[in-house]
Amino acid sequence: MYLSSVLLLPLPPCYHGNVVISEVPAVATLKKEPKTFAFDHCFWSMEDSNVKFANQEIVFNCLGKDILERAFEGYNACILAYGQTGSGKSYSMMGTNEQKGIIPRLCDALFDQIKEKEANDLGFKVEVSYMEIYNEKVRDLLDPKGRHNLRVREHNILGPYVDDLSTLAVSAFQDINTLMSEGNKSRTVAATNMNSESSRSHAVFSIIVTQTLSDLQTGVS
Ligand SMILES: Nc1ncnc2c1ncn2[C@@H]1O[C@H](COP(=O)(O)OP(=O)(O)OP(=O)(O)O)[C@@H](O)[C@H]1O
Ligand SMILES: [Mg+2]
């Protein structure tokens, strides 16, 4: 089963705040015709002195925490950031060193929870993969020599997957951060009129958490 959150960023933050759209139905008027759409939260982040300003922590508490809880329950979970160039997708997902985005916060919380939950009979393994899709070609961002294109295949039970994509084991957010920074260096980036460092590709960062419960008496896991 897949759970997802969509982080929809309609206009660059200099014009609007960030909007998260997912579950509860609402009605809006657009070019005279009423449209029905759904959203759980609406964030505004233009001026940090304003009381309604939503910082990265507020966005994470509304979005990332639940996703992490569901992941520990065994569900596949996905956050998709969607919006035009310069609207704040990279900022919301990655952020800066001072204003960490959803991914670093999620990873920090993930490793904190693993530390809390780990026991003699319960172990965790965390692996990551990172790829970009650009001009319909898929590239492995964690493979320093991975300039070649990877193939998307279909598994008869698990569905589509990227053949030969590297998955690397990590034990702390610092490991993930180093891998992502290396990966980001290989991302296709260019200037647009609205963003001097625009990510021209789609990037998919996956975290695979495996929980192993063992019976200490029989050794069965
Ligand atoms: N909520 C925010 N608060 C402060 N600065 C922001 C916010 N959102 C975005 N920015 C800044 O706006 C600029 C553009 O944002 P960003 O690079 O995240 O856009 P993007 O949606 O990833 O665009 P592209 O599709 O071109 O990659 C960046 O300099 C970023 O730091
Ligand atoms: Mg970007």
Automatic annotation (TrEMBL):
GO terms, biological process: microtubule-based movement
Keywords carried by this UniProt record: ATP-binding, Motor protein, Nucleotide-binding
Annotated positions binding ATP: 83-90
Keyword Mitochondrion carried by entry: no
Pfam families reported for this sequence: Kinesin (PF00225)
Residue ranges of every copy of the Kinesin motor domain listed in the record: 1-221
Superkingdom: Eukaryota
UniProt xrefs under InterPro entries: Kinesin_motor_dom, Kinesin_motor_dom_sf, P-loop_NTPase
One example GO MF annotation: microtubule binding
Homology family: Belongs to the TRAFAC class myosin-kinesin ATPase superfamily. Kinesin family.
Entry protein name: Kinesin motor domain-containing protein
